[in-house]
Each structure stands twice: as structure tokens, then as C-alpha cells.
Amino acid sequence: MKFSMRLFCTSLLLGLRCFAAVEVEVYSILGSVSRAAPANTDSHVGPPFVRNASWIGAVASVTGNVVTIQGSPSWTTNRFIPSSSATDIYHVRVRTGALAGHYFVVTSNTSNTVTVDAAGLPINSLSSGDSLEITPFWTIGALYPPSAAGVTYIASSSALSTQTQLLFFDPTSTGTNRSPSATYFFYNGAWRKTGASVTTSFDTVVVYPDTYYIQRNKATATTLTFKGRVQSDFLGTVLEGAVSANDNYLTLALPMAVSLNETGLATSAFASSPSPLSRTDELLLFDPSGTGLNRSPSGTYYYYNGAWRKTGSSASLDFGSTVTIPSGHGFVIRKPPAAGSTTWQMATGF
Length: 350
Known about the structure:
Elements: E1 3-13, E2 25-37, E3 41-45, E4 55-63, E5 66-69, E6 90-94, E7 103-109, E8 113-117, E9 131-136, E10 138-139, H1 140-143, E11 165-168, E12 182-187, E13 190-193, E14 206-207, E15 213-217, E16 222-229, E17 234-239, E18 246-251, E19 258-259, E20 282-285, E21 299-304, E22 307-310, E23 324-325, E24 330-335, E25 342-347
Antiparallel strand pairs: 1-2, 2-16, 3-15, 4-5, 4-9, 5-8, 6-7, 6-9, 7-8, 10-14, 11-12, 11-15, 12-13, 17-25, 18-24, 19-23, 20-21, 20-24, 21-22
């Protein structure tokens, strides 16, 4: 599968857009990445860029799930909550400090506070001075607008004969080899959901920055082109364990491939295996040039004796620097039964 990438830098004077007491000059790296989505194939997709931040600032204090902001941003109440005139859903992403890279969905805001869904993370680990940004999530409608029909995806002429489908997984479910929980298709000017009314739009369905979805093309191949801002500082996510073995469907929001060593997994969130025959955490990769539906992983990797190993290969071979997670692709981290959840933070290099 072929990729092309363009990156350029821009200086964005946020000023009033940041609702800050003073103007702040922020330098962003913007870019574009393209990849093929073959016909009759499930492509595991994760956007390699994020959207522009609506505000950047710092923490003053934290009480419960309420974060008070330094300075006087003077936000309108619930400025970051969807309404009839503004459908974006926002999240707070932590840029520095103990929770760097992790994000929290905004549930409300006042003129100088944001209330978030902590989702089990210790939000009280935020400290005064930690840098934050408030950014809208990608949505299906933002990633796949009507103007991209025929290029990025194929629109359906009938709800009974769908073309390109987007398959999403329920992030709250557990187990291995889980089936998608929702399927969307573009019909009559908007994204629709299989099993729902064809008059209901699902354009605002959130595409989370750390999870992948599947784009299933039928008889026509398309080209996926993603444009946006390169995520600076850190990426962060939680690797969920469960009573039984559990698959975490993941992606890295970066516009370049990352080697297994560069992920930093083995030094933090990924459990080392005691032996090649008794593996704990496993990382499953899909062939980026593979074709077909319901594709199985092309390689399974585990960490043993100080290096990344591959099932089916000699346990003396080190794959840490030669095997990469491609940009814009999905992968799986499988936790064994009864494993605890772990947090993963990775410096982006930007």
C-alpha cells in the first residue's frame, strides 16, 4: 500500500479565538497524508492528525472532575457543549505533566472552568501549571464530508444496497475478536446507521483519537486523504484489562510510521512475557498492503528477555527496530485474562 505525506508549518495567532486574557502565539505543524483503500477490503483506519485547538492554556486547580483555568478565559457557559447551532463535541487534552497525552470529554463549562468525564483516570493528578488544550473531536461528517464522495468513499444509492461502510467498535465492550457494534453508510446527503431510520443523520458520531475503525469498500477502491494538525507533546491512552482476555483497538495519531521500540510500550504499559510459551501482553499488526474482508492480523508480537519477539519466529530475533506501526492504521493490544489496566504515554517528537 502506497503512502504520500506533506507537512508544513504555520504560525497561528490565537488571540480571541483562544479566549485568553493575552494573545498567545502558537506554532502548529499541519499536514496531509494519503493512502489507498482497496476494493473489497477492510482497511483499519485511524486519523493521523487532530483538529485545530480552540483554546490552549494552563490548569489553576482541580476539584473532583472540575478543572479551573488560569487567567480569565471568559468563556460563554457551555461553549464547548453541542447545541443546535454548534455540533462539535470537545475534549480536554493534557499537554504536560503526569497525565500528558491523555484526554477527557468535556461535559460542561463555565467562564473559567471545564467539567470533564474522567473515565476512570486520576484527574486529580493534574497540577497547577499543567498545559491543556480544548479541541473538537473528529466526527464521521468532518472526516468524510459530502464533497469527498467518489474519492474517499463511495456513496450509497439505496439503503438496501450500501457501498462504502464504516464499522465502529464499542470501546466499553470486552473480549477478543469482537464484532463491530455499529455500521454507517453515506446515503442521501448524510451518514446513516444500519438498523436505524434512513432519515436520521449520524454525521456527529465521534472518532476518538486513540481507536481505529474499519472502512469497508465494496467493488470500488478509494483514496483516503487526511489533513490536519500534527499532535504535539504526547499521546496517551488506557490499555484495558478484563476478567477474560481483552483486545484494545488502537491507533497512533501521527503522520509517520513508528517502530515497536519507539512506542515506549515495553518500558511502561506493556507487560513482558516470562517465556515464549507463556505470553502475557501481545501486539497484533495487520498487513498494510493486505486485501480482503474480515482480515486476520499478519503478525503477533510480544516482549521477552529485553526485546520484541514474533510468534512463529525464533525467540532470539529482535523485531523492535524493524517492525513498524504504519501511519493512519489500526492495531490491537491484547491483554491476557485477569490483567489489570495500564496507562500508556508516548512522546510524539513534535
